[in-house]
Amino acid sequence: MATIPVDDLEITRAFGPHLSASIRGPASGEPDKLVKTHCCFCGQQCGIQLKVRNNEVIGFEPWEEFPFNRGMLCPKGVKRYLQGSHPDRLLTAVRRDPAAPGGFRAMPYAEAIALAAREIARLQKEHGPGAVGVLGGASLTTEKTYLLGKFARVCLKTPYIDYNGRLCMVSAGAANKKAFGIDRTTNPWSDMVGTEVIWVAGSNVAECSPITTNYIWQAREMGAKVIVQDPRITPVARTCDLYLPVKPGRDAALFAGVLQIMIEKGWVDRDFIDAHTVGFDKVEEYCAQWTPARTAEVTGVPERSLRAAAEMWGTAKSSFLFHARGIEHHSNGVQNSLGTINLVLASGRIGKPKCGYGTIVGQANGQGGREHGQKCDQLPGWRDISNPEHRKYIASVWGVEEASIPGPGVDAYEMFRKIDAGEIKGLISICFNPKISLPDNEFIARALEKLEFYVAIDFFLNDSARHADLILPGSLQEEDEGTVTQVEGRVIKINEAVQCPGEAKRDWVIIQDLAAALGRPHGFTFGSAREIFEELRVASKGGVADYSGITYEKIEQQMGVFWPCYSHDPETGAPTPDHPGTPRLFEPGSYNPVAKGAGPFYFPDGRARFNVADYRAPVDDASEDYPLFLTTGRVVSQFLSGTQTRRIGPLVKQYPEPRIEMHPRLAEKLGIADKEWATCETRRGEITLRAMVVTTIRPDTVFVPYHWPGDKSANRLTVAAQDPISKIPQYKVCGCRVRKAAGPPPYAATHEAQQ
Ligand SMILES: Nc1nc2c(c(=O)[nH]1)N[C@H]1C(S)=C(S)[C@@H](COP(=O)(O)OP(=O)(O)OC[C@H]3O[C@@H](n4cnc5c(=O)[nH]c(N)nc54)[C@H](O)[C@@H]3O)O[C@H]1N2
Ligand SMILES: Nc1nc2c(c(=O)[nH]1)N[C@H]1C(S)=C(S)[C@@H](COP(=O)(O)OP(=O)(O)OC[C@H]3O[C@@H](n4cnc5c(=O)[nH]c(N)nc54)[C@H](O)[C@@H]3O)O[C@H]1N2
Ligand code: SF4
Ligand SMILES: [Mo]
């Protein structure tokens, strides 16, 4: 009865070293040129060569020399070229018009820019600069994110800018800053091969960071032991050495419990702790309460597995620990991330070859997109918008008065609360689809309707943009150049393969056109992405995320540059153009501008910080009324809100509809058979989907992927609780109940008819 998802089996087969040899783009038609660039989807940022003919991407060739993926791609990378020619591609601006078919009518680009500028100016004149907010995204190049942050602060003078990385990377980012003073994964992935132990916490690597799976396999072939901590037996867990079936939302307790065993057994590196860290005593004190028995009770992980994890981790000589959204998407997300860091620091295995720690970046530019000023509290170079010195420096680069730069704004979800309250009346969004991707999204839809003026910049009319007054036709990734920073901290170059079709424009051109139409062009007259990058190099100089030593040429020559590029000159510490970059952080003797030689970590004393990572039960936890845990996430063939991948036929075919994944024991109790309709209900709402009965999930937990809109949207169910520090939503757990549906949901009629 129980089935293992077929998609998963395909994945495991698909990602072998043979992929690059066996898969090519469509055979028909010779290309005019091949363009070396990267995949537009996830943060692995696989190298790929796009085949271009007559200004159209017609297929791809593997780019075998690119060191990270060596020609391998996952199904999304293989099919991405199909989206450019999709009939839904926006070729003109469109304006909302209830009388027009589909609710929108085309509008000449110049008129659309003029309209947007008029409305923004009107709202700001009537209600002040903060009446208009900006939402950005981490699929954008770093140049665009830099420009957007500058646009909000200099052109609009609004404090209200934030981005969709708020839903993704911020718990890990905040924890990294607290513990290390810098927010980047520590080692190149090649360091994984030859390590002794790999611990994967809350990451479905095979489906979500497929190339990482390949590194794990290579490591395993060389003898590495693999620990997986997840409420689901994901594909990588099926072959791991130790599986920790944690109850959703209990990770901080698990880390504390494992560390406690390590402390008791003497499996911590006291020399490293004394020489390179502060704060271990408080952590030790906190962990004492996490006896194996209590940890097992809270986490649902058997004591023997906790002990095995402590031994495997505690006695290793080299190790890698990764996590992703499984431990980060929580109202306790920062604490969970700090819990992993404590395990790493206690082991002393950091700043060395084969000893890595990091969060697996999600979006294409999840790393670069969080460094240069599109976050509500940040200026370029990971600078702090509340720090007078940081403000002064950026004001000098931008040629504005320091006092004219607004102070910190609020996180993306809070912006919607302000929209709801009528404080923010106008919204410019680019590369963000909040209506599908934010929790409790019925609230988001209502807020979008309250806006007096909403302009979206996108290449498709996404589900949120359906609420917009105006959509400006932006660029696909292959229609522009620029840099992104991939999962390892390697800055790489996206190259233009084709030019924007019709009246579509490169995103940064649109932002500058808006500035010009607002009559505030100062600082928005860049002629190319390269020019923006040159200013970003200056703006980031001296910040923690220092890109000043990176040039387009160096990226091309080296196939990527790991930031930062500090010279090791202890006198100045200034990055020098000839510095090749820093693949491995925190090596003994390494220089950074905060410690100035005092030690490898980015604090004045050069020491890393232990932080007490305390466990708190989730908000809206499973209870008598809602006895199951609902957790949400991804499937391999779909990407985020699905705006792009639901338009790529072969990917849709691979996983056409969301299903509710549940264990056979639960299914039996509920009287639901595989593929039957089931209704999942939480305190916010309910959705009806087909059941997928699998033995690979905890019997007290159900999983729903979130890539679909409307009646199939998982975010109808999720809770808008947020981490108090990072403001990340708690997507990964809330209480729910499941019942057999009375019959198919209304949407099924159309869907079944199509099948
Ligand atoms: N195919 C595909 N790949 C993607 C994306 C995509 O949409 N589709 N998106 C990209 C982006 S932006 C991101 S952020 C990454 C996300 O990458 P991942 O974080 O790997 O993916 P998720 O599916 O969100 O969740 C990961 C795992 O967390 C587990 N989990 C749920 N609750 C808990 C918990 O409380 N504790 C623990 N330990 N585990 C838990 C889930 O069972 C799931 O296996 O993927 C990137 N890659
Ligand atoms: N329930 C639940 N919800 C989640 C998650 C979860 O695990 N569970 N995961 C969260 C995570 S980790 C993330 S990252 C968010 C993602 O949140 P979203 O903001 O929904 O991400 P996307 O689907 O990439 O939407 C971005 C939009 O940007 C457009 N776009 C992409 N590239 C470009 C570009 O270069 N230029 C322009 N102009 N537009 C572009 C796309 O067409 C799309 O319409 O979702 C979050 N939501
Ligand atoms: S989606 Fe990610 S793993 Fe797949 S090809 Fe693109 S960059 Fe590589
Ligand atoms: Mo993400």
- The low-confidence parts are 1-25
**How many beta-strand elements?**
28
Q: Rg from C-alpha positions?
A: 25 Å
Placed side by side, the strands forming the largest sheet appear as 5-4-18-17-16-6-7
Number of domains: 4
Mean pLDDT across every amino acid position:
93
Computed structural class: alpha/beta
Strand content: 15-25%
Give the name of the CATH architecture of the largest domain.
Answer: 3-Layer(aba) Sandwich
What kind of sheet is the major sheet?
7 strands, mixed
Helix share, percent = 25-40%
CATH homology superfamily name of the largest domain: Dimethylsulfoxide Reductase, domain 2
Compute the separation of the termini in Å: 24 Å
Choose one word for the global shape: globular
SS field, number of helical segments: 25
What can you tell me about this protein's structure?
The protein has 755 residues and is an alpha/beta fold. It has four domains: 8-85, Phosphorylase Kinase, domain 1 (2-Layer Sandwich); 93-162 and 366-478, Rossmann fold (3-Layer(aba) Sandwich), CATH 3.40.50; 170-359, Dimethylsulfoxide Reductase, domain 2, CATH 3.40.228; 628-754, Beta Barrel (Barwin-like endoglucanases), CATH 2.40.40.20. The chain is 31% helix and 17% strand. The protein has 25 helices and 28 strands. It has a seven-stranded mixed beta sheet, with helices on both faces. A hairpin with a 4-residue loop joins strand 19 (482-485) and strand 20. Helix 5 (142-156) packs parallel to helix 20 (507-517), helix 6 (170-180) crosses helix 15 and helix 17 crosses helix 19 (441-450). It is globular. Bound molecules: ligand MGD (2 copies), iron/sulfur cluster and molybdenum atom (MO). One ligand MGD binds next to helix 7, helix 14 and strand 23.
